[in-house]
Design brief:
heterodimer, A: 397 residues, alpha+beta, 19-stranded mixed beta sheet, 3-stranded mixed beta sheet, 9 helices, 24 strands, 33% strand, B: 187 residues, mainly alpha, elongated
Chain lengths: 397, 187
């Protein structure tokens, strides 16, 4: 292969690396190339570094392509179809930064560099915390418990006339036969670092976030379908106009619906209980006050004074991002972010020195190890972390 | 070598095909030349000449890799001519100084141009609405409500466009597990 073609080949490897598409063989070739020469590594770092590349991309935007094309055409003297291509500047750098920072991070984890000592260690087996998973404990009416992460699939138990079935994908379903008998309550709890999805007897689906509890009847009867929630849950309530569905929070707040999709976040350590509506209509009730929510609205109950407020332009995707396997930060304070991480990775957060208010925007999959999330935040700036077992030490600056 | 976006050429090229090649390679070749000779105008002239040269003999090429190789080679040779000329001039003024343009440096700059060029192209194909919002959010560091005000659109539209841009970027250049991270604003 001549040198030029080899250069094209290496470029493809670097681009594939940025796209996360390298095969093992290709990664080996890229590694060999990186090891073979210090200049190669420097070049690679430059091309996967946001700040450096930002500057380079500015050059691309400074070129007047249309004028150049016309000059070329004039020289060849052949009429050609001109495609109108307006270049828009500036946003390149932004978008490139988006991509490259990601790529840069991927790089740091893929090729652990001994010469640089990032504060977050990149050896996962030693100093890292794995993400949470599908874990929950089901407590039956008689007080017996079933651990759901290792229970075999299939029928778990019978609750009155209801069969509790564990499905293939780790979900739980309640299947009711015949008429309802005595109302039996079950409780499902997720630990820190756990989440779980279940289908209730009426067909309503519930996703429970980490450190949350749902108390619910094995069968629904009477005039309403009432469940009790602590922590955070996303509900897709089956329609039943005759039997409203009610979620009762531990501070007495109630969310009443007929059939709709919504999220309720009410962890005790969060200052507000937030109800976010995806579709349908819900009523949020606290004491004698109530608000009606329509899709894309979020109702907030301030815990300290029971003040109910509606955000008319809520970010629904952000509210249910956890259910979709993402952390989604939108100008979120570092302290808010750390509380979320603590629940999902089951870690303790300790602040070193004064807490400087820092705000972050971005999203990352919940399935990555904690070091990757921390690294991402460090790269964004203003904060440094140290992992000590299951304790994260946070230093804002 | 992986396939490039414009597909196989069949020898019966028209101006439209050449325009596609131009759109894809012009800026990155200018960047390449500029890295070698450090003069933007001269770089553009060199690249334009390379395209003219290619156009005149486009029937000789049957695949994009050979076209790309031809363009890079033509630009490289023209740049080396400029460098040699400058060195001759320089020798009178200064002591003998090697400009340092080894084959290795040239190879490095091809890689630089190709990677930066591909990233540039990936971003270029985002729809306009997405781009505007991305620009303001991540370059202008504006908040959602400020973007909404500036573009006269609702906050929800801002959020939707942001999400869409990121989704598209993810499809075009998936960077593994990380989707986006950017703005950090402190006070």
């Amino acid at each position: 292969m001549n040198q030029q073609n080899e250069a094209f080949q290496q470029s493809q490897f670097i681009l594939k690396h940025l796209r996360g598409e390298l095969s093992i063989a290709e990664k080996n070739e890229l590694d060999t190339w990186l090891e073979s020469n210090d200049n190669n590594r420097t070049l690679f770092e430059e091309l996967t570094n946001e700040v450096l590349l930002k500057k380079e991309l500015q050059f691309f935007d400074s070129i007047e392509t249309e004028a150049a094309w016309q000059k070329i055409e004039a020289q060849v003297k052949e009429p050609a179809k001109i495609v109108n291509m307006k270049t828009n500047r500036r946003w390149w750098y932004a978008a490139a930064a988006v991509l490259l920072l990601g790529g840069f991070l991927t790089y740091r984890f893929a090729f652990q560099q001994p010469d640089k000592t990032p504060i977050v260690k990149t050896t996962p087996e030693k100093n890292d915390v794995a993400p949470g998973g599908n874990k929950a404990i089901l407590t039956l009416a008689d007080g017996s418990t079933i651990i759901l992460d290792n229970a075999a699939n299939g029928s778990l138990t019978e609750q009155g006339n209801t069969e509790v079935i564990k499905l293939d994908d780790g979900q739980l379903a309640y299947n009711t036969e015949g008429v309802a008998g005595e109302v039996v309550y079950n409780t499902i709890s997720t630990p820190r670092g756990g989440q779980y999805q279940l289908t209730l007897a009426d067909g309503s689906k519930v996703w429970l976030n980490a450190a949350s509890t749902l108390r619910f009847p094995a069968t629904f009867s009477g005039t309403e379908r009432k469940v009790e929630l602590t922590g955070e849950g996303y509900f897709e309530v089956a329609k039943d106009a005759d039997m409203p569905f009610k979620v009762v929070m531990n501070n007495g707040m109630e969310v009443e619906v007929l059939g709709t999709h919504f999220n309720v976040m009410g962890y005790d350590d969060e200052g507000m209980v937030k109800t976010t509506l995806v579709e349908g209509k819900v009523k949020v009730i606290k004491g004698s006050n109530h608000i009606m929510l329509l899709p894309n609205q979020q109702g907030s109950l301030l815990r300290e004074n029971d003040n109910l407020k509606i955000d008319w332009n809520a970010d629904v995707n952000k509210a249910i991002s956890w259910k979709n396997g993402l952390f989604d930060f939108d100008n979120d304070a570092i302290t808010d972010i750390m509380r979320q991480l603590a629940r999902w990775y089951d870690v303790e957060i300790q602040y070193s020195g004064n807490i400087v208010a820092q705000f972050y925007t971005g999203s990352i999959r919940r399935q990555v190890n904690i070091s990757q999330v921390l690294f991402m935040l460090e790269q964004a700036g203003g904060v440094q972390f140290k992992i000590e077992g299951k304790k994260i030490i946070v230093k804002t600056k | 070598m992986s396939e490039l976006p414009i597909g196989v050429l069949d020898g019966k090229q028209n101006a439209f095909d050449i325009r596609n090649l131009f759109d894809l390679y012009y800026t990155r070749l200018c960047y390449f030349a500029h890295k070698l000779i450090g003069n933007k105008e001269a770089s553009e002239d060199i690249v334009q000449d390379a395209f003219v040269a290619y156009w005149k003999k486009s029937a000789d090429f049957d695949n994009e890799l050979s076209i790309k190789s031809f363009l890079y080679l033509t630009v490289k040779n023209a740049c080396l001519n400029v460098i040699r000329h400058e060195q001759v001039v320089k020798r009178f003024a200064e002591s003998n100084e090697d400009s340092g343009y080894t084959e290795e440096k040239i190879t490095e700059n091809i890689i630089r141009s190709e990677v930066a060029g591909e990233i540039h192209t990936a971003i270029a194909t985002l729809p306009k609405g997405c781009r505007q919002v991305l620009e303001l959010a991540y370059f202008g560091e504006l908040k959602n409500d400020e973007i909404a005000e500036q573009l006269q659109i609702s906050i929800n539209t801002v959020k939707t466009q942001k999400a869409r841009a990121l989704q598209l970027l993810r499809l075009k250049l998936d960077v593994g597990s990380l989707i986006l991270v950017l703005a950090v604003t402190g006070f």
